[in-house]
Every structure is written in structure tokens, then in C-alpha cells.
Amino acid sequence: MCGIFAYIGGREATPILLQALRRLEYRGYDSAGISVKNYELKVVKTEGKIRTLEELVAKETVSGKIGIAHTRWATHGEPTTVNAHPHMSCDGKLALVHNGVIENYLELKFLLEKKGHNFVSNTDTEVLVHLIEEFENQDLTTAVELALSRVEGAYGLVIMSKNEDKIIGAKKGSSLVLGVGKDEYFLASDTSPIIEHTRDIIHLEDEDIVIITKNSYKIKNFGKEKIRPIEKVDWDIETLEKKGYDYFMLKEIYEQPESLKSCLRGRIEKNKTDIHLRRLELSEKYIKNISRIILLACGTSWHAGLVGKYILEEHLRIPVEVDYASEFRYRNPIIKPTDLVIAISQSGETADTLAALKEAKNRGAETLGIVNVVGSAIAREAGKGIYLHAGPEIGVASTKAFTSQIIALHLLNLYFGRTRNTISDEKAYELIKAIEVIPEKVKTTLELDEKIKEVAEEYYQVKNFLYLGRGINFPVALEGALKLKEISYIHAEGYPAAEMKHGPIALIDKNMPVVFIANKSNGTYEKVLSNMEEVKARKGRIIAIATEEDNIINKLSNHTIYVPNTIEFCTSIINTIPLQLLAYHIAVLNGRDVDKPRNLAKSVTVE
Amino acid sequence: MKQAVILAAGKGIRMLPLTKYVPKPLVKINGKPFLDYLLGNLEEAGYEMVYVIVGHKKNQVEEFFKKNDFNFETKFVHQIKRLGTGHAVKLLSRHIKENFVVVMGDNLYSVNDLGNINFDDNYNCIYALRHKNPERFGVLVTKGNFLVEIEEKPEKPKSNLINAGLYKFTPEIFDKLRKIKKSPRGEYELTSAIEMLAKKNKVKVKVLKDYWLDLGKYEDIPKIESFIKKNF
Which domain range does residue B143 map to? Predict the structure, then answer.
């Protein structure tokens, strides 16, 4: 998910481009670059945040009235200066920025290299500019049309040329918007960087190519000229970046069907019994010899680790230990060469987790990372692992990273299980079939939002909450409690349901509501029912998460939230969704700043 | 001795985000920091002492002087609180006992104009340019060769002479600088002190013979770059 922007008009481009990149930063921010045309094309790009790019530009003074810009969220190729956009053609006459994925880039790269093109980066984008260069003897528009006819994949792109005072945009699959100003024009991945300049917007359609000069624009689709309607945008910038959601956190909760799909994409073999994990880089021999797995994490990622323990132990029969990274590093931990240590982190910069990982490496463990941010410190330290591909997570309380981490652990489980022969063909097929429909089931579960809001309205003024779950849903209870704590500041605790009678039951009264996770597919369903009876007897109010069509539960609970059915090992993802929404609505009803809770930082880089 | 005071402490808000990282006088013009051109011209015009008032990003300004050798003495004065051009020049009151020139660090004047400034008389002098749209600037109202008052961006300008930001003062300016009050925009303005002197017929107006380049906003960069390319 990158951000692109282009400007052509009567004003100096550089300040406009830099400001636009700030607006687009929420889409992706591990590297950025601009290209500005004066007498030649001046490209300034760098890894790091927009700030780093601004500093570079300040030292070089790039002037010109035509420019393109890009902020990158890496998918193919690490975030480095060389991989950053804009990318240039061999002769330096073309510069291009791109958002999307070119699926046949490897074969195109091979063909272009044979023709003598010089590639400098590991990105899929670079093939686009060289492919257009191939047709350089045509006019730029025709060259772009010819090149794109050979491309498979999604793109929103803008190209500029040293020889012409125009910019050309093309759209297919990724969004691209045209802003119409007074003798100036803008192209961008979304309207947020455009509306401070003009509110007249054209949403380009798939296969549109737009050719823009300082005074005019023309839209062509498959060679035919098209007139597209100009719409007036009246949203403000903040609203646009959140795409209409009140908070980034809510947007990210709703993004989960997409983010889960992204985590699975390209990783399930066509035979539906095997998993393909490109960056895992562990030999078959090594995998067969693993004697213990240690999962290191903090906060919500630690909860994902706990879920992972249930999944991995059940299917691999390898002992799995889940440790708070902050505790692990100071404990003089026992590490054997056959131990596999896996660090789980959204940002990849969490100080405690990074330090614990280094500690494990120093003691001779093999390491993996399960991380969202490409090229982050933990990813580099581990050297190999699984990227979540969930897109940037901006809300401080983690939501989509958590569910993607669980999916990643499922993939790891299958990969190891098939290699160690502890997961049979039938079992693998059953697991994969269930996992593949999780995104769809999450989407269905999100439809419970209204109902969950009603539940929140009844409980938002309480001072304490208890969350109970068993087995693989015990960590879900912990996570549910943490979400409520983080964003609403209401005290909440998670416990294994059976543990309640060993202490916490003393707290139960009419002022202490209890959330029970009680899916029918859970092997301990009957025990959970008796736990609920115990709470009811003490006048506690119960909110139950139950499987569809369970009629017994709602005789015991005050409120029941019915979620889609799935195999036990996939219930943790489905059950998390209503708890994220419950925490969200209770926080909003209490007037909290959901995206920036007090005292919390998104990535804890202090120890 | 020819001596000049360069005001280089400002934040350069109109050139954000660049001025978050470099002070405006160091913004590159044709590959060289803009200040380099001013200092080169001061050197060629025979100035022997330059006071530089620094503030925003002062380390970079001081670094720049260290790396480049100019044929004059340099002294830095740190304006800790940005209280205006009047406040800045007043900081030199203990250092300067003779006539001196004041120039903005993001402006440029020719060697001739800088060299022709008369240090030997007892008059203050404000330098001007004739402009076809004077209403956008500070307009100088004169009686003969003398300044009567300065009008800031007047709707109906009384002359086409605009304030080019280059001044020559006698030490009596310091006395007036100690007496001025804050302007409507909350700063101590150099022009307030000049107007006090003007009331006593102590300020002459002279017209620049060559040019005045002002690096105000980003749009000025290409204009200045092409001017310098043509004329240097």
C-alpha cells in the first residue's frame, strides 16, 4: 500500500510534493522519493521517513514546476534507497512512481535484461519504466499504452519525461485520482493530498490513461478518449485518511478480511495440503530436529503467541514456551541448539523483543521473526520469517496485526507439520479449508457491529470487567481484556474459565460483568456452561460469545453474540472480532481518543 | 573601516518544510548556499568586519563560515529570542562604535552598490529601488533626498520607491532602538527606529544602481537562479 502523487502547473512543485507525501504518510512510510523536472529530471529519494527525504531535499534545492512523488510501504524488495521510487530508465530520461503489484515482473525483467536494460533494484516497479523505455521511439503516450498491454497485475502509476512538459498517469486495480485546479493538475492515490489545493476530483477508472499538461488533460481508455465526471469533495483531510471511519482503529478492525487474505495470498499450494513460505529458509533436516519452540513477544503479540502455543503443540507435538520478551532477556534463559526462537512483533522495533531476540541468538538459538513492518530491526535481526502483509497499523491498540499473527502461526504450523509428517494429508486439507474461509467469516462477524454497540451501551459505565475463556480461547479472553483496558481505561482481567473459582469469583457481583467465550466447538463447552452458572448464581451479568444457533447459552447469559462456526483451532480469530468492537464502542461511549490512548505509544522502543 | 551587520537569525517560515532543516540563508542557489554570494560581494567590496546575528539553526551558519574563508573578520551574535529586526540590531550596541551597514542574510546586492556606500558622513541612509507595484512593499516617502516616513504596503503609494532592505547607520541608531515600542505584529522593528531618525531629518534615501534579490519563498528560487546564472 504505497502513496503516489504528481503535480503539474504554475507553482514550484517541491513544496507541494513534500506536503502531499506528509498527507499520504499514513499509507506507507518506510521510504520516499520525488522527481522534479527543470531542464533535467532531478530525483531525490531515500529510505526512512518523509522527514529524512525533506532533509535531503533541503540540502539540494530541487526546483521545477512538474514533479512526481512516492511514499513506500514495501512489498517486493527491502526498504532501501535503491528500491525507493521514483525509478528511472537506463538513459535517465524517464522517472516513474507506482502503487500496486506487477505479477509478471520476473518474466518481464528477464526479457528486458536480455535486451540490455540495466536493473538496479529488487522491485517489481522498475520493470515498468524500462518497459516503457523499450518503446521510446514512439511518443510517450503510445509507449505507455504499449508497455501496459504487456503487464499483468495492479497499478496506479505516474510517469514523467525529461523531454516533455507533461505527466501521464495510468490506473488498473489500484486507485488513482485526478485533481483539477486552475491551470494546475494533481494525481494521487487518494484525495487526501489534493483537497487542500482543489476540491474538483475525477476518479479514474480501470484501464484509464490520463495525459496532463499545464493547461489541459485528456483521458483515454483502450485508445478511445473518455469524458469522466468531475465530483466535488467536501470531506476534510483527516476524514479522508480514515476513509470515513471515525478512527483508524475502527478502519483497521474492518480491514481484517483484507489483511487476513493478504497474509494467505500466494502461500497455500494448489493441492490445498501444503504451504509455501518463501522467507522461511530453514532446511528440512533442521525442521525435523526442532526440540522446542520459544515464542517471544510483548503485549498483544504475546497473546498471539499464546494462541500459537495451542496450535503448534497440538499439531507438532513440540513443547512450546511463550515468554514475555522483557522477562526472557533478564532471566538467564536456557537455550539449546535445537531450540527455535520466534519473535512476534507488529512494528518490528519493540525494544524488549529485539533485545530478547538478540539474547537468544547469542546463546545459540535459531531464530525467526513474525513481523508486519518489512525491513524492521526485528526482521533483520531474525534474518528469516513470515511477513504479515497487513498494511500499516496506525491505531495504537493492535487489531489486524493480532489476527494476522495468528494466521501466520497457522501457516507455520502447517509448514512444520507437513515437513515433520505430524500433519496428515487429510488433516492438512481440513485445516487449510477452514483457514481459507476465515476472511469471509470475519466479514460476517463484523456485521454484528450494531448489536455489539447495543451491548456496549448497557455496560460502558461499569468500572470492572472479567473475561473468561478456555483452551485456545483463554488468550482471546486476555486480549479482549487488554483491548478494553487500553482504549477505555476500564479495569479488565482475563482468566482461564476454570481458574475463576480459585479466586476471582470473589469479585463477582452485579457490578462486575463477565464476558464468556463459549463456542460449541470448544472441547470444554460443558465446563464453560457450569462456569456461567456459577457467575449467574452470584448475580453477575454475562455477555457470551457463542456459536450460531446455540439455544442453551442464551438461557444463562444476559447478552449473547452469535459468531459463525469454525473448527476449534480457528475460533480464536473469529472470537476476537466482537471483543475488539466491544472495547471500541465502550471507549467511544466514554469519550476516549481511541487512536491515541493516554500513556501509550504505538511502538514501544524504550525498555 | 567598512563593516556590515548581517541578520541571519530568522526561521524562514515561508520556505517550510525546507527551513526545518536548513536556515534560509543557506538554501542552495545554483548549487551554492545563497549567503555565499552575499559574503563574496561584501568581500569584493572591501568590507573588513562582518557581524552575523544568528538564531535559527545557528550551528549550520557558524559551520558554513568555518568551512569558507573570507577576507574579513567575522563575529557571531546570538539572538536568543526572536523579537524583531530592531531588537537584533540593538544587540550590536556594545560592539559597534562607528558607522555600519545592515543587510538581511537572505538578500543580495551588487559589489558596486555595497562598495559605494559612504561611511564618512554623519547621515543614516536607506537604500531603495523603483518598482512598478510598490503597494506590495514598504514604500519610502521622501522630501528631496530625505526620508519622511515608511508606508507598509499602502493602498495608494505616495512614491514608487520601495525599501530594499539595505541600510547604513551611524551609532545614534542604537539610542533610538532602545526607545522603540513593539509593532502591531508584536516585534521591535528596525523601521520604527529609522522613522524616529527620519523625523529629525537624519535619514537620506539613495537608489540602488544594480539589483536587489530577495529569497522570500520557494517560487523565488528559479527566478534568482536564472538571474545569477546570467549575471555572474
Answer: 3-231
d(CA A89, CA A514): 62
Cβ contact, residue pair B27, A61, below 8 Å: yes
Distance CA A290, CA A276 (A): 19
Q: Which three cell numbers stand for residue A476?
A: 482471546
**Cell 518474466 belongs to residue:** A107
pLDDT tens for residues B107-149? 999 999 999 999 999 999 999 999 999 999 999 999 999 999 9
Rounded to 5 degrees, what angle do the CA atoms A190, A194, A198 make? 135
- Give this prediction's pTM: 0.69
DSSP state of B136: G
The answer for residues whose C-beta is within 8 angstroms of residue B114's C-beta and 6 or more apart is B4, B41, B42, B45, B47, B101
What chain A residue is nearest to B28 in terms of C-alpha separation?
A61
Q: Torsion over CA of A392, A394, A395 and A401, rounded to 10 degrees?
A: 20
Q: Nearest CA of chain B to the CA of A12: how many Å?
A: 6
Selection from A244, A184, A250 nearest residue A214 by Cα: A184
Q: How far apart are CA B198 and CA B220, in angstroms?
A: 32
How far is B96 from B3, CA to CA, in rounded Å? 9
The grid coordinates listed for A522 are 470448544
Contact call for residues B8 and B23 (beta carbons, < 8 A): yes
How do residues B54-64 score in pLDDT, each as one tens digit? Answer: 999 999 999 99
Alpha-carbon Rg for chain A, nearest whole angstrom, is 26
Q: Indicate the number of domains in chain B.
A: 1
Residue A2 annotated as catalytic:
yes
pLDDT, one tens digit per residue, over A127-165 is 999 999 999 888 999 999 999 999 998 899 999 999 999
Q: Could you tell me the three cell numbers for A495?
A: 482468566
State the Cα–Cα distance between residues A329 and A322, nearest whole angstrom.
13
Map grid coordinates 528477464 to a residue.
A110
Q: Which of A38, A54, A64 is facing B20, going by the closest CB pair?
A: A54
Return d(Cα B7, Cα A274) in angstroms, integer. 71
CA dist A469 and A499 (Å) reads 10
Catalytic-role residue among A2, A263, A298, A570: A2
Picking from A57, A60, A63, the nearest residue to B222 by CB comes out as: A63
Determine the Cα–Cα distance for residues A286 and A273; give it in Å rounded to an integer: 21
Known catalytic residue at A166: no
- Pairing between β-strand B161-169 and β-strand B124-130 as defined by DSSP bridges: antiparallel
Angle at A366 between CA A364 and CA A371, to 5 degrees: 130
Q: Which residues of A touch B15 (CB under 8 A)?
A: 15
Residue ranges of alpha helices (H) inside A63-184 are 105-114, 125-134, 140-148
E-only strand ranges, A464-594: 464-469, 491-496, 514-518, 542-547, 559-563
DSSP A570: G
Cross-chain residue pair A58–B20, CB shorter than 8 Å: yes
DSSP secondary structure letter of residue A60: H
Burial A514-523 (b: 16+ CB within 10 A, else e): bbbbbbbebe
Read off the CATH number of the domain in which B131 is found: 3.90.550.10
- Look at residue A190 in the predicted model and tell me its pLDDT: 83
Which helix (H) or strand (E) covers residue A381, if one does? Answer: helix A377-382
Q: Which residues pair with A428 in a beta bridge?
A: none
Nearest to A58 among B18, B29, B219 (CB): B18
Residues of chain A neighbouring B57 (CB-CB closer than 8 A): none
Q: Which amino acid is at A13?
A: A
Nearest residue of B to residue A14 by CA position? B218
Inter-chain touch B221–A38, beta carbons under 8 Å: no
d(CA A197, CA A213): 17
Under an 8 Å CB criterion, which residues of A touch B? 11-12, 14-15, 18-19, 38, 54-55, 57-61, 63-64
A-contacting residues in B 191-220 (Cβ below 8 Å): 218-219
